[in-house]
């Protein structure tokens, strides 16, 4: 080791945020292992790294014991022998002698380099993990790196994220070099470094897009209470205003529909129904079945289920194609919804 090596450690601490003391402790442990491996010592040893000069020294350690307790002369020394070295030694004290091998410097330098390289790699992984764990459940813009077996790899700058088939918008095509907005679904640590899973199909993507697009939502005046989504097809979103002067639906739609249009364009023409949230279950369920008209809603609070009566000519609209409208309304309100026409209700 030399002065340049110590300067390099200072630079690592400054530029990469790697704690110098922790790094030196790690190097000392690695050097201890290297010493025992290369010199096969049965002694109990301690490796000392001079934090100023970078010098490496190895010390054997022996515990001062009573002569009747002496078992291993490599690890222990009698009290009488210890006091020949210094009269101040007492039972239980540790005596150290330097045993640094002449050619240990080369091994030490190689070992320290390996430790530093490994620690830099770990530190970089930790930095990337910390950066993206803070962005979990947020939107970022990435670039499609490649598509392999229905898995899209998205370059986020420092790292590549993966978007599995279930997190893609059905029917959406992805090409290398394409810029896309993705929702960070999960950030986890693995042995190979951070792994990031992103999504284009998650309801959170719609919510975050509206937060970016609608100032009233960003400021907290208009609140998104719930979102139900079938990606690539349709989304229902319930909103509420804490200011009576602000129309929550109008704020989300924007002047001439500009705000919602930007989001629809981003999602590939996915239909978005924006409804007004209500604390009254009947009102909320009725609104959730928009654009269908509702005649009557009968709620069962205990079962959290509702019977909804609609005009005969509105039944198919209320249920929706392949049951989508009713399904999304149930997800949005978190109520079980049974829809019947007026004729069916009268018959029953």
UniProtKB/TrEMBL annotation:
Ranges for the S1 motif domain?
A: 137-201
**Where is the protein localized?**
Cytoplasm
Q: Which GO terms describe its molecular function?
A: DNA-binding transcription factor activity; RNA binding
What does the UniProt keyword field contain? Cytoplasm, RNA-binding, Transcription, Transcription antitermination, Transcription regulation, Transcription termination
The superkingdom of the source organism is: Bacteria
InterPro entries in the record? KH_dom-like_a/b (IPR015946), KH_NusA_2nd (IPR058582), KH_sf_prok-type (IPR009019), NA-bd_OB-fold (IPR012340), NusA_N_sf (IPR036555), S1_domain (IPR003029), TF_NusA (IPR010213), TF_NusA_bacterial (IPR030842)
GO biological process per UniProt: DNA-templated transcription termination; transcription antitermination
**SMART domains under this entry?**
S1
> Gene Ontology terms, cellular component aspect?
cytosol
Q: Which Pfam families match?
A: KH_NusA_1st, KH_NusA_2nd, NusA_N, S1
Q: What does this protein do?
A: Participates in both transcription termination and antitermination.
Query: Assembly and partners?
Result: Monomer. Binds directly to the core enzyme of the DNA-dependent RNA polymerase and to nascent RNA.
The similarity comment for this entry is:
Belongs to the NusA family.
Specify the protein name: Transcription termination/antitermination protein NusA
Source organism of the structure: Asaccharospora irregularis DSM 2635
